[in-house]
Hints:
Blueprint: H1 4-10, H2 22-27, E1 33-37, E2 40-43, E3 48-51, H3 54-57, H4 66-78, H5 91-104, E4 109-115, H6 118-135, E5 143-147, H7 156-161, E6 178-181, H8 196-214, E7 219-224, H9 240-251, E8 254-258, H10 272-276, E9 282-285, E10 297-302, H11 303-310, H12 329-344, H13 347-368, E11 372-378, E12 381-386, H14 398-410, E13 413-414, E14 416-418, E15 421-424, H15 432-447
Parallel strand pairs: 3-13, 5-6, 5-7, 7-8, 8-9
Antiparallel strand pairs: 1-2, 2-3, 4-10, 9-10, 11-12, 12-15, 14-15
Helix pairs in contact: 4-12, 5-12, 8-9, 13-15, 14-15
Amino acid sequence: xxxxxxxxxxxxxxxxxxxxxxxxxxxxxxxxxxxxxxxxxxxxxxxxxxxxxxxxxxxxxxxxxxxxxxxxxxxxxxxxxxxxxxxxxxxxxxxxxxxxxxxxxxxxxxxxxxxxxxxxxxxxxxxxxxxxxxxxxxxxxxxxxxxxxxxxxxxxxxxxxxxxxxxxxxxxxxxxxxxxxxxxxxxxxxxxxxxxxxxxxxxxxxxxxxxxxxxxxxxxxxxxxxxxxxxxxxxxxxxxxxxxxxxxxxxxxxxxxxxxxxxxxxxxxxxxxxxxxxxxxxxxxxxxxxxxxxxxxxxxxxxxxxxxxxxxxxxxxxxxxxxxxxxxxxxxxxxxxxxxxxxxxxxxxxxxxxxxxxxxxxxxxxxxxxxxxxxxxxxxxxxxxxxxxxxxxxxxxxxxxxxxxxxxxxxxxxxxxxxxxxxxxxxxxxxxxxxxxxxxxxxxxxxxx
Length: 449
């Protein structure tokens, strides 16, 4: 075992951490997690915390799901790797593709392209959309529209889709032909509109205006998360995604649903699209696909798109795209086990029940503490927006957020600080007692102000 002093001495010295400034990590070294079990993690000091982040939206089944561990171990002993490029496949990838078609059939998905994670899945979706329009002979349809607060990964395509400049600015220029409309974010929006239904309509009007100015015959797809995740857990009005679908149909634009966070029960429904009663043309999945036990994702394709490409008889139908680990047999084995456990435990129902309890508790905290400007959530995805003043909505400074965060961790709960938001996305196996612990720790954290 590596000595604890070694870990502390080398913490952040040789490893650049995602979504962080390297100098800040050197000045304030990150928490060192050395153990995880069930729904808890333990740091290098032996302090145990309930993981209210769920890994990173992905550990839906907790850290001790033995069927997934066994499936991985068995597959490693049988065949640890097999590429799926032209002319080769493997049994687990075939089985998983069938299971995913069954799982997402209600969403209108019929084909699967395996990736290595969520960012891969989004870029795959973008490439397949452009390929689809070329096959259809509509070469001008190359542009994408997304939401101003949406998050779509870190590859150049997905990062260009991201509405938050934090994920784009340092790497621009990005992929050309990408545009954004306001997100249905009632707490902060350019219309100063707090009514979610009216705000939804105003955002839709912005979309129609943008389509008109760009030319509908140049738009390839609209890309959205059914519930915005990393951008602050923004839950739209129930009509919003349905209206987006209607606008896409009206102008012949494809709809890509980024389900990397929402799929597999986190919203209280098996997919975010299903939650709002919408069938997209393409869906992207990852994260909970394997419960966080193996990096894997997929892009799911509707019959209309797959038929057009499969029936093409020239080089435009060729899939000149793929990843070293597309359909990795170990990942596929992990995913098969995760799907079985997810279904057996009916995680969507638990997420819906526990999520309602969590949101109730967080809203009670909002009435108690003036630094809580807004509380948002659906299922087991929630956010607390921290402000310096409720009237001006001025975002809380980093020191205030850090002070609260530290106390919450000391109280035995790990949440995620993202800007002036606390993001809460625990494993979907949590109990009512776990919810109470999360709310209690947050209560203690805010009480120090």
